[in-house]
Model the fold of this input.
Amino acid sequence: MTVLLTPLDVAKVREDFPLLTHPFHGKPLHYLDSAVSGQMPIPVIERMAHYQRFEHTNVHRGVSALSQEATDRFEEAREKVRAFLHAPSVKQIVWTRGTTEAINLVAQSWGRANIQAGDEILLSAMEHHANIVPWQMLANEKGASIKVIPMDDRGVLELDQLEALLTPRTKVLGITHVSNVLGTVNPLKAIIAQAHAKGVVVVVDGAQAVPHVPVDVVDLDADFYAFSGHKLSGPTGIGVLYGRKELLETMPPWQGGGNMILSVAWEKTSYMGIPGKFEAGTPAIAEAIGLGAAIDYFNALGLDRIAAHEHALLDYATAELGSIEGLRIIGTAPGKASVLSFVLEGIHPHDVGSILDHEGVVVRAGHHCAQPVMTRFNIPATTRASFAYFNDRADVDALVAAIRKVQEIFGAESDDTSAEGQD
Done:
């Protein structure tokens, strides 16, 4: 039986985002940069403000009613993350500053204890720098090597090569769930199963996945799964590391200090169990509570409805941009997430982004912290438009009109140059 989803009332949703009605360079604002940071809706902003006004104190430290209330709200947010990821236990949810810190934690704690000289670290060709550089640092320290799963011209991983790349020396696979440049959604469950068959631990960068696809870490059988709050319409400075319980329990603390100890003496310090031993110092309390509110907001809208809306918008945008002469879309994998990276013939992406900005269209131009992807496609950078649940066709139409204006401007400059050459 086919279940018909009630479409998102995007006009109503947009009322929760004051920035979208704020003039930008004297023009309406079209925010198409959610892949870098999703906008925070009013309920998230207000929940954080309520904590700051009426609940603010430290957590896990005081006997006062105020401290206990703040601790309860902080831990309630952890439970919301657990449920969102379908993790078995809150003890498997570690607060971090974001995906980058979460992956560094795994590399520096699990990696240092398990990677040795001659071992291999396997990554994919579409990884964000956050899932490359920490492993390079570890490989250089330990004398390990890095291997790469290649991808084709569509931006699809060549998984027929995975079996050969998973050797007896392979200790860990770092893989993105959704590419931040290409929008490719990797078949994560099959990849993890293949890696586990060879005894390889899998670390997933889920930063771009959580706003777009349901995530069940048990069904995926992920060893580690990381994401950032600000990708999920939450605040910056807060992130999550999910870890398999038996792995987290054997890992040494990465940072030391208050809040992660059972006892401290000059002779010896004993540490808390998980997740506390990985959460040294005062945490980002308001931000964790804000992330919990963002999860509530997503749950209320429904990830299935969000995905349906974004896919329809992506299809429309792909067709519209595909009709522009001289425009090449980078990343054409089937079933991709709502990311459109492109290049315009003869025009640098930074120039494209700058002109679009003055037209009120906010995109990102650059290498998107994925320089190996740019190298693979033999380009210096792309312009990237990324769509969220609060975007509509008017945003796409504004993007198309602004791109055509870029071409007009550079076409006129080219004509002027040609005319000067004839004098």
Notes: The first strand starts at residue 30 and ends at 31. The chain has two domains: 10-40+302-416, 44-299. The two ends are 72 Å apart (CA to CA). The domain at 10-40+302-416 is CATH 3.90.1150.10 (Aspartate Aminotransferase, domain 1).
